Amino acid sequence: MMTCILIIEDDVRVATSTERWLSMEGFEVKICHDSTQSMALLEQHNIDVILSDVRMPKVTGMELLPKIVAFDVNLPVILMTGHGDISMAVDAMEKGAYYFIEKPFEPEHLTQIINRAVEKRKLATENQRLKNQLSQVSGIESTLIGSSTVMNKLRKQLLMLAGFDASIIINGDTGTGKELVARCLHDYSARFEQPFVAINCGAIPENLLESELFGHEKGAFTGANQTRIGKLEYASNGTLFLDEVESMPMNFQVKLLRALQEKTIERVGSNKSISINPRIISATKVDLKALAEQGDFRLDLYYRLKVAELYLPKLQERLDDIPLLFQHFINIACQQYQLPEVKMTVENLVLLSKQTWPGNVRELANLAQQFAIANISGDIPLATLLTPGYVVDPEATVSGSGANNLLDQVSNFEEQLIRASMSKHQGSIKDIMTELQVSRRTLNIKMQRYNIQRNDYL
């Protein structure tokens, strides 16, 4: 995209000659001879740099400057004057001008100034983009909680893919939050104001699936007392989330594939074609491609659904997030049931880190709810709520070897203490030193020993 420069100059001869030179230099140029019309032009066009005369009838360049700054503080303004006035130049700079150039000027000199101004503009725009993205990440962090490396990577991938209007497959074990991620993909996309429609393909009987997705006309079958809009039609211009897509019957997959390819459907009991345009997000807990290669899922549908793919980590792969997640779920439970605040102990956090979590985040959320309710009448040990299969066997710990010996257990406990404090204080070294009562040197040594990266918790 060409850099666009707006010249505000009442002298037609100067404006024309400057426009001719800048056009030869590869810039797109707009000219405004009447300074009172300049703000309207600024609103109509995407201007990168303004080149304005100072002394003009009606509205001078100095009077125009604060208006431009108010419109876009990052828009470089280069002021031109035929009167060498140092005090005016200083005043212009203080009011936000990028540069002050005297007439007559060397065209090459003007080009250099404009190129520097363009770089400044690009830098300011990029900084603003990063600020906006950080603001978005801040919002998404309140939904996809966790400061681990894998979660930071997932959020970045999600924000990138949300902007592409393409079909996505979310791959993850039960309880990893596939629907939550699908919802985030919708909320951070251009379709966020349109419906988000979720359907579990494994929970609907095969004979009702077609009616559920395509809809039906009144009287199409016994019990069809009124016309019903299907999920595909209702999610048009929005997002359709197909959970457990691997359980969709093979004979129905053909119908879905055709509907997605042709972007049309026919309700059950109707011959009328209806245009649809939903974004399809699918979720599966199995390797869908391997399933397709075995003949248990249509390969052509797999390729239609998978333009991009997201892999959700197991809870076991993000143990650093457990303290933050567990406290978050406790807070939700306390709000939901109007319970007093429940605080976690370090011993409980260490105990949580030793679990296998086959149910992933969903299991952790369930345990947090139980723990919050159980503590209404007093301090209930967390271990009592964990099923016997999950609790670490004390005898095996004592008699074992390797990571189960006393020294390793102490080190593991120490590491969990530091990581828990890191999560709690979001990487603030000063707060961590105060809480753990250690010196900066001691903390640095232990962070190096356990490979704890402060940036992962900021």
Rounded Rg: 31 Å
From the 3D structure, determine the CATH topology of the largest domain.
Rossmann fold
CATH superfamily of the largest domain: P-loop containing nucleotide triphosphate hydrolases
- Profile the largest sheet: 5 strands, parallel
> In percent terms, what proportion of residues is strand?
5-15%
Structural class: alpha/beta
What is the number of helical segments per DSSP (H or I, 4+ residues)? 19
- Work out the number of β strands: 14
For the record, give the distance between the C-alpha atoms at the N and C termini, rounded to a whole number. Answer: 36 Å
Oligomer: single chain
Tell the overall outline: flat
CATH architecture classification of the largest domain = 3-Layer(aba) Sandwich
Question: Helicity, in percent?
Answer: 40-55%
Query: What is the average per-residue confidence, as pLDDT, rounded to a whole number?
Result: 85
Give the low-confidence spans.
Answer: 133-137, 389-404
- For the record, what CATH class of the largest domain applies? Alpha Beta
Q: How many separate domains? A: 3
Q: Order of strands side by side in the largest beta sheet?
A: 2-1-3-4-5
